[in-house]
Amino acid sequence: MLSVLVQVPKLDCPIYELEKSKVPGENRDMVGLKLTIIYCNYTSKQSLPHPNHHKHNHNHHHHQNAPQKNPHHPQRRTHLPPQNLHQHRPQPTGFFLTELAKPLSKLLSAGHEITFASPKGQPPTPDPLSESLLAFAGNFYERQRENELIERMRRENGFSSPRPFFSISDDELRTFAAVFIPGGHAPLTDLGSDKELGRILRYFHGENKPTAAICHGPYALLSTRLGDGGFVYKGYEITCWSDAEEKVMETVLGGEIEKVEGELRKEGAVMVEGAKEKMGGTTLCRELLTGGNPLAAEELGERFVRMVSV
């Protein structure tokens, strides 16, 4: 027996969610479905130039030995600031622990089969900031539970050897029910420009299959603009880590970080960034479910399970 969860969208976005009715004593056994979870391929370490870099260019000797800029090869923007600019120490990043663990736990509890995938198949690592007690508001036991879940996935489910995107054929994609992209700054380093990921996401979009992304994860949606037809989520309502929040991180850490909200808006997405979303609310538009920060992980996991368990 099914009941429709009615939700009034802000724009003309069809309602997607269904869930089994919560009748006391009802048998709610669910058939497990295959899902894929996608994330950055490895811990990224990038650094920014010394803050006095431009002053050094005024030194005559330094200027003579400096390499000339090639107008045909523009300087690549560094996405993540270093921990210590003076020592050129890079800032490590990876998936954000709770943004992966909470939805993953709910999917596993619902009986779904999980396949992990990444651009090149390298083992993923968590963002060190996401493992701090501060990220868990001091809740040591919650952090322990989520780390234990990831360790279990390493032992039992191939978490340390994810499938490379190219190894998942178009025929095999038909066997998957949904796709989820967790956050952390890692997606900024490679997911938005990965053609194979664009192929995968265009398939889920074309088949109207549940797709979810959280925090910086929606940056991966930009990979669809690399294929025929351009960005497939144009006109979609999307919630992600906002540009204003990213600017705060830039102030704290120094340097410049790619802006997820701005890039998606530039491609025609309708960004939803209200007080509700800042406090963990999620946004559903057609087959796409998104959330803006770690506070959204719980709700996103619950709604995503309802989307794929019908």
Automatic annotation (TrEMBL):
Domain of life: Eukaryota
Region (Disordered): 46-91
EC number assigned by the record: 4.2.1.130
Range of residues in the leader sequence: none
Keyword annotations of the record: Glutamine amidotransferase, Transferase
Gene Ontology MF annotations: glyoxalase III activity; transferase activity
Start-end of Basic residues biased regions: 51-79
Gene Ontology process terms (BP): methylglyoxal catabolic process to D-lactate via S-lactoyl-glutathione
Stored InterPro entries: Class_I_gatase-like, Prot/Nucl_acid_deglycase, ThiJ-like
One family name in Pfam for this protein: ThiJ_like
GO CC annotations on file: cytoplasm
Reaction(s) the record says it catalyses: methylglyoxal + H2O = (R)-lactate + H(+)
Keyword Transferase assigned: yes
Alphabetical list of PANTHER family matching this protein: DJ-1_PFPI DOMAIN-CONTAINING PROTEIN (PTHR48094:SF22), PROTEIN/NUCLEIC ACID DEGLYCASE DJ-1-RELATED (PTHR48094)
Protein name, as recorded: D-lactate dehydratase
